[in-house]
User: What shape does this take?
Amino acid sequence: MRDVKKIAIPEYDAVEKAKRHTFALITAAREAIMPLTFTIHYPTERKLMPKNFRGFILFESERCINCWQCAFICPANAIRMKKAPDNRYYPTIDYAKCIFCHFCVDSCPRGALKPTKIHDVAYKDMEEMLTLTDKMIEKPEVHREDERFVDYVLGEDDATLKRERGKDDFFVEVPTPPEVRFVSRCVQPESCLGCRICEGVCESGAISSVVEDGVRKMRIDEEKCTGCGLCVKECAMQILTLVRVR
Amino acid sequence: MATARDASGASASASVAEAVSEWRVRLPEKPFKDLKYFGNLKAKVIDAGICSRCLTCAAVCPAPEGITAVDGVVFENWEEKCLDCGACVRVCPRFEYEPKSGLGEYLEILAARSKRFSGQDGAMVTEILASAIEMGIIDRAIFVGRDEAWRTTNFHLREIEQLSLKTLRGTKYCYSTALSELREAVLRSKGVGVIGTPCMVSGVKKLREEFPLFREKVKISVGLFCTENFHWEELHAFLKEKGVSFEKLVKTDITKGQFIATMTDGEVTFPVSELEEIIPSGCRVCTDFAAVDADVSVGSVGSAPGFSTVVVRSALVKEIIDYIRRNKYADFGNVMLKVVNKMVKLKKKREANIKK
Assistant: This one.
């Protein structure tokens, strides 16, 4: 019982007491007139979302190399690749399944899939939720009711809300990821079956084969190879790999 | 260690520094120039009646849903689906058939009985592969299991504890499809062990010769002493007629010229010569009793009841046997080589069935 400390109410002198009482009265008055509620008055107010907010996903088709990484990585199996008139496959997203994890956005090697700050998405029926590629390219129609945006400001011993008039831009400028060039190469050519599944699956026509003198000659054109990795995935003997080139 | 099959890695052992953008693949000669390679295989081996149903072709076939075994070896719609790569022809032991025979080369021959496991005789196939897993030589072994009707199934053994499954041990006298799963096994593991009849281990030898991937990863091929195998449908029908009830069947054995089907409540025995009429054509042209192409051959012939004869052929298997000896995992006995040689000679007589 010897180590128990007694907490005593601090003794303030008259000046200190006066200061503290005044501060309390000012706070009370301020709260009565202009209460600092933390409740965000949605939809008139919106919280300022960070730039990388995981909202509705947009698509820039010119950047796409058809590697199918987005479809492979989606944990909800929400991405289906669909053939376009140019005979290439592009992603479509089923928002009935999408969990907005943005693994697809993160895994895209060219930054073709982009985040936006749109988080309220409304549909009239289930079928509409399957968003086709062209609906991912064009910016969706956004109906806004907000007039202000708010953000938390953390001080030393207090947190306050900062309210600002104006609308936060939903469409974010995504910097182009630095292009790291990869090309496909064969690490164990003696194990090659010569099945040409790699040639068949190549989207950029980089892999070719020719039969000459009773031998099948395989070739990967590194200028054409986009490093998408589809051949690496499909190789029956798993002898292709992506190699970084400078 | 399972090898991840994603776009950023390869399971091959060569380093990235040696990766190439141009390479060549050997194309075997086509005896039938206007047919795709599977068509050639079909004409020269399957339709010619010498296909042993080893399924080495299935081990390499890259076509999705390519080669399978139904009544015999088939490739549905091969005229369109065959990728014409030639791999099947390169590895088929019967395409350019050179019949193997004799006892083969070996480092030592012994008779042994596992103290840890029970099996057909000495359970040495199980003991050798279990020890290999313990030693870290392999991390996967394709065992042959069975269903209630005694159709063979494939079981990829990863841990010794899995051997408590009784159906994994003991002889099943019908075709195994183990080799059709060998490529997937090899891609997912660092070292693989496989069990097969003499035709299957000859197929494994060819896989190792043709493709470094198999040479590096298939560490142990266990061959079984074999006179012939049977199609499940035919053997099942034959045994049923003999009064065998498959739900109660616990062991099938061929020993001293008798086929013995042991059930929980009785036994059905008959001379094995009665099975002559259902010996498949592919087996009639086989002269290899002792599985000469295996890393180790195991069988009941030549050792006492309850013991297995083990013919050690590779240095790696010798290490495993030494490990078994050191750990006292098995009892050792005497081998009666005379009997083994007698069976070897007998099977060599099938040479006469091979058309020149």
